[in-house]
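A protein record pairs a chain with a discrete description of its three-dimensional fold. The shape at a given residue is found from the number at the same position. Here is what such a record looks like in full:
>
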Amino acid sequence: MAVMYGVPFVQKCARIRRVRKVALFPMAMDHYQPAETYVAWKVLKACGARVCDAGERDTDLAFAWHPSTQYDLDQSLVQRFQERHPVINAGCTDIRKSRVGEHFSVAFGYALEIDPLTYDGILLRKSERNGAHDAMLLQGPLTSVEPGYVYQRCIDFETPKGIAEWRVFIVAGKIIGLYANYRPADNRFQTLSSSSEMCGISDAFSAEECAKIEQFAASMKLDLGVLDVLRDRQDGRVYVCDCNNTPTGPSEKLNRRNQLKLVHDLTEAFEAAYLK
């Protein structure tokens, strides 16, 4: 991934007159996996940014970074940064599934979560934690619930190409691009997609749906990240099922041109919003 993105990004960075310093805290980007796997690394690289720690002076921007479901920030440090410039994702430090569900129902006017003790039908149980990949289908109503899990309606998101999940990229509260990940219809919980396909925003969502997705992103205070969105073929509605403030990607199932085009669009939007 680093090799693929290196040459185009270095060429762009060479045209930038001034190196931007971006403070990253409270965790280093490469703590869990190589930094270049993350969308934010690619965007910052393309912007010509030099990542530094929170103690460095004269920064141009700060980025709250911690690849966990929920964490606390030093608010005095955030406030000091905010006196000079934005702090990306400073308000998006809790992406538990229950919180996603709460904000989704407010933005869209209908709910993803259900009461498993009264719901009569197939339901989905999944961990509150981001990236747990432990979802399970159960027959409701249940006689008890387990702490640390959420219970949701079972979305039918099968298409002729398989089950489809949109990865929707957000910068500064706006939808910048998206692609669909497809998996076999008989294995909805497979973590790796079998194929990915770029989609036009207006081809995937109506103007009203886009507005609601952006309302949801704003309520989650997601400045840069990815939303996972499904469309139920039974009721035709879209459902935001996940919010990721440290996403990896774009998918390697996309061709090189589409990957670079998406990162380019994200970079242009990021620079316009935060590094004028």
The domain at 97-111+156-255 is CATH 3.30.470.20 (D-amino Acid Aminotransferase; Chain A, domain 1). Helices lie at 2-13, 39-46, 75-82, 97-108, 201-204, 207-219, 256-274.
